[in-house]
Each structure stands twice: as structure tokens, then as C-alpha cells.
Membrane protein
Amino acid sequence: MARIPGSYLIFIVCLGLLGACNTRKYLMPGQLYYNKSEVKVFGKDSTKVPISIKTELDGLLISKQRGVILGSRVGVWMYEQRKRHKPILGFIYKQFAKPPLYFDYNKVSQVSRLLENRMGNHGYFGTRAEFDTVRHRNGVDVKYRVYPTVPYRVKNITLDVSTETVIDSLVREASGKTLLKPGQRYNLARMRKERTRITEYVRNRGYFFFNDNDILFLADSTVGHRQVDLTLTLKKDIQAHDTLIYHTDTARVYFVHHEPPDSLKELHLHSSVKKDVRFFSKRKKTTRLKVIYPAIYMKPDSLYRYSNYQRTIRHLSGLGVFKFVDLRENANDSTRIIQPDIFLTPGNPKSVQVELGGSTNSEGYAGPELSLAYNHQNLFRGAEHFTFQLKGGFLKEFGESSDFDRIYWLGVNANLNIPRFIRWIGKPPETKNFIPLTKIGVSVQRYDFSSILTLDYINTTFGYQWQKTSNYINRFDPIFISYQRSPNSDSILIDLKKQFPLLGQSIENQLIIGSSYKGTFYSSLDVQETNRIYDAFTIDVSGNILYGLFRITDPSRDVDKEPYKVLGLDFSQYLRFTNDFRYYLRTSKRSNIATRLLLGLGVPWGNSKSLPFIMQYFIGGPNDLRGFRTRTVGPGSYQPPDSTATTFFGQGGDIKLEGNIEYRFPIAGIFKGAVFVDAGNIWLANNDPDRPGGKFSADKFYKEIAVSSGAGLRLDFKVVVIRLDWGIPLRKPYLPEGKRWVIDKIDIGSSSWRSKNIIFNFSLGYPF
């Protein structure tokens, strides 16, 4: 008798269960389920609609029925079963049960009108929206069609405001930096934003009750074909108190749990805290008043400013120690005084987290990870955020295995973030709108490489992080210390260097004492934006001060033969610049093109002839050249004679040039796809006789660019993205000139070619 394999049996059982989930019996006569809807915009040339508007139209559609598996409404079936008191395991019900959505012609028709209205808000007046329904057994799909018109554009912008009152003058001043320009497409959202901007400008000068409704835009569409004139003016019947100036009274801060505010007692203030804020609490205060006071910008007898209200809310919330922050502004019309009452509800500052997950690194290793972390949001009652973390894991190399194909690691990290500048030399940067951080970190990690080699890493940092604007983050570490050592005996290390020449300095004891700065720019944090830019610029400097001191005390030493030492170790001296630029272009609601250009330059000098291993650049692997094995490309046209050498330590360089382009698109559900092209290489700043062809040369570097291409699958679980990429080399820089392009050598049908050239990459998250 033939046997059915277990996998096929499970598949047949699942199909049977899905078939049993018949939901048609729950429908009333004439009733149908709603499945999903889609919208297609038929615009081209002069009526072409931007992607951002198409994405906005998608957001107006009725959400599709959830809980559908392979076309079967499993979630609805579970919901109906539970409603009829039939047993469904609780946790399964919570995860999968979904209430049914029914087809409603009126709602579907209403969406059609919403689509037309939204197009009008963007200047496409007269746009027509239609829809068809497609029935699938007991469900209905809705397909909308939008036929846009030629959009209206702004011809002239006129300011119709007198100069009779102070408010008139303020509105005229604010209009000088208008967001509206002639030639722009008519855009209701931009006009509302302009109105809000002017309102905030006026409110920041004491006019507490002035609001958006006091400003009007008049539109005249008779001035030309598909053109409109806009006139900004003030409402004629503005209420009297909208034109009155208000001042701020002494802010009252209430630390509340569940007590009514009138039961709280006023706290005695230390002499170091000014008396222009009053604090009330019934219990022992959990956060020092000296820390809270600077976060309150609303001071007594000062002109009311809406920006101070915003800053106060932002800073108090940003301290991270309060569960709720509620700021109420009570106006007294007779005295024209605003009384700020701030209600702060302390949160629980302590937490313990245990996480079992997975981790990957840029070298192409992946594996399980266990983490135990203790967090305290208010360690010294000054909103200091302390984290102590114990982590450990196992990493396995994917693809072709090397001698170091397994890594066991264990680490301890301690980090303290203090919400203010500590020990800043001179005047600290201005950070009115954002809370600055002083960051202190210590980490100790041990790596065991296949029981062959053990390395310890000790890192300490002291630095600052601050922002002046919402889209630029500064990070400055005036000092960081990095120390690498191996507990293996000298004889073992010597044998390893002989066996694996590429290891070189990467397993030697190393000491780095330096400083670093990183500036990160985001054009927008909204992933739905049509165009987004990310740019991170990093400068690392090491050893210069130490080198200068040693040159004073021992100027005659020849550092090429005998470098200066600290604690018996050669210290590193170098300058290192890295710029990572990324541009994202959204092509539809769920697809986009991502690009990256990375430039890196390291200059060793003085006490060092090369960059320390952990500061070198590498290329090849899951996050850059995905058609080459990890860290196997470069430097330049060099190829190590032993192609089986370890890929973890790989081939490093002082200069890096890399470019990537990737098209990302949806497939179905959590499954997303990508096609990509990667190009780049690394080079040496100085000649190395052991690595011929590795030195950078301006007249031939472009001939040594490696190129790869491929496709990938992503499983997007929202909280984590599992990435699977398959890449192939298109250009190999280590081949003789004239033979480096290998596109004509591609032979998918050959198993030998596939095993040598198709590189599988597994990682978590997107490569850029």
C-alpha cells in the first residue's frame, strides 16, 4: 500500500480545514461580503498625477477584509463561531478572528465622491471617479477609475491686509516667508499649512486667542484657463479677544498619581531653583525639581508665546520619566493672563527585558541571540537613562564555509544617557527645541572563532548628542577608547598567522584612543514621502594628541622602526572620513527605488602605517556587493593566492567607493521582492608588497570597480524584516584587464557555474 509523505498529509489536512471554513451560511438573503478595492488613475501628459497623490487616494479606500487565507475567510469563520458560543481557543481567536465586512453600495459610492473631492483639493477640479464591482462567489471586489482633469495652477498671490493694527502688521511680516509661489499647483493642504504658519507667528507675539479661522484665502478661477488667483485676507468680524495680547503667569506643576490636585501640598524649593515655577505633590518627588525646571519655558510676566507651550510639552515628555504630561492653559480675560497648569504622572522607571531573537552581521553570519537587559529611566532622579545588558549568541556563516565558520560570543554593555550637557568645554550648542544628551558607554565582548581563536574587545565612549532641527542629529565623542586583545598564547597566534596570512594585524593587540563626530541628516522621517534623502557624515581622529606629547618628550625616535607605545602597545594614529548618502524615490504606494553612494577615506600617518583592523573598510557580502562572498573583494585588483582563506577577517583597505541601486516592490502579504545592482571596491592608501595591485591610483581605480546584480525576497513582519538575497558577479576586478566583465560567462543551466557564482545572502533588515 502506498504511503503519503508527512508533508503532503499536512497540506491535505490544511486544505480540508480551509474548505470547512464556509462563511456563506452566515449571510442574510441578498447580502454579500466585501473583499477589497483598488483605484487606478488614468492620467497622462498634462493630467498626469504625482505618486504622492495616488498614495493619498489609496488611503481613502475601504480596508480589505482581514483574516483571509488562500481565499478562505478563516478569520470571519472564527468570529462567527465564537459569537455563536462555539469553542475556539482564546489565543487563536485573538490572533485570527476578524469581524466580517459587508458590501454596502452607499459606502462604496461615497468613496467615489471622496476621491473626486480629494483630487479637487489638489487642484484637479472636475475630476470624475467611477467604479465597477466584480463578484467572486459570495464576495465583491470594487475597482475605482479616476479620470483627472488638467490641474489649476496659482497665477498670482495677493495680500489684502491693511496696516491699521498690530495684527495686520504681523500678518504682513509673516507673509514675507510664504509657502505659496506662483506657478504651483493649487493645493488646499499647502494653503492650510500657510494659514497655520501665520497663526503661530502671531500667537508667538502674545495673541493667545488668534486662530486659523481668523485668516481667509479667497480664490478667483476666472483669471485664465485652469488658473487661479489667491488672495490672503483677515476675517472682517474677528472676535475682540483674538486681538488682545496676553502674558503668562507663574506655572504650577502638579505631580499626580490618583489624587485630586487640590489635595497636593506645595513643595519647598532649593535655593538653586528659581521661584518662578511652583511645584505641588503629596508624595515624595521621584524626579529632582532642578531637572524639571529647565524644561518649563512658560515664565511669569512674560509675553505669551505658543512656541514656549510646544517646547515645554516636548521637553517634559522627552525626559522619559512621566507616563502622562498634560499642560492646560487657563485664560483670564479680565487680567489678560494665561495660567499654565502642568500635570505630571510619574511612570515606572524600572524594567527588565528578556529577548530571544536572531542577529546578523555584515560578514554574512547569522544565528540565535539571547539578551537580558535592566533599564532604569531615572537612575539618580535626574531623568538619567541607564541600561545594563548581558547578551550572548551563536553565529553561523552562510554560503561557502571558511575555517572560521562558527562564532560564539558573549558581551556586557552598560550605557548611561544624561539629558543635559556634562563637562562641555566652553559654551554648549543651542538646543532649545530638543533635549541634549551626554552619553557614557562601556562594553566588553568575547568572541570564540570555531575554538581556534579567541578575541576580546573593550570599548568605552564619552560623548554628546544634540539637535537644533528635527532633521539633523549631531553626535560628538571627544574621547573613545577601543582595546583588542587575544588570550591565546603567542605561539598559537604565530601559527595562525602562518596558516592564515590574511589574519595579519587583525588578531594583534590593538589600542585606539581618539575622537569622532557624526552628523546625520534626514529630509523626512515619513516613508510615504515621494523623495527622501539620508546622509551621514563621520570623522574619526585618533592618536594625534598622544603623538604630539611623545614628540615633545622623545623627538629623536624613528617611528617607522620603533613606534611610540602606551601600556606596552603601539597606539593607532589616523584620520578617517566616511560619507553615506542615500536617496529614496517612491514609485507607487508600496514600491520604491533605493540608492546609496558611500565614500570612505582613511589616512594612517605618524605612529601608524595602516588603519587598525576595526577601522578598515571591507566590501563584499549581504550589505554591499551581494554577488561576492563576504570581504573577498579588493583591495584594488589584488586577489589572495589562497582562495580558501577565512572570510570573516577578509581583505581590508583604507579607501572605499560603493554605489547601489535597488528596486523594492510588493509580492503578496508579508512577501516583498527586490532586484538590485551593486558596484564598488576598496583600496590601500600606501603600497603593500604583499598585496600587489591594492594601492589606489587615480588613473586606474575606475577600471577596478566590481559589479554584481541579483534579486531578493523579503519577509516583512513589521517588527523585523528577514532578507534573502541571491547575487551573481558581473565584473571581477581581480581578473586581467579586458577580461573583467563576465556577463558573457553566465550559464544558469550549469550546476558548476551556479555553485561558484550564485551567492546566497541571509540577513535581517534592509541593506540601506
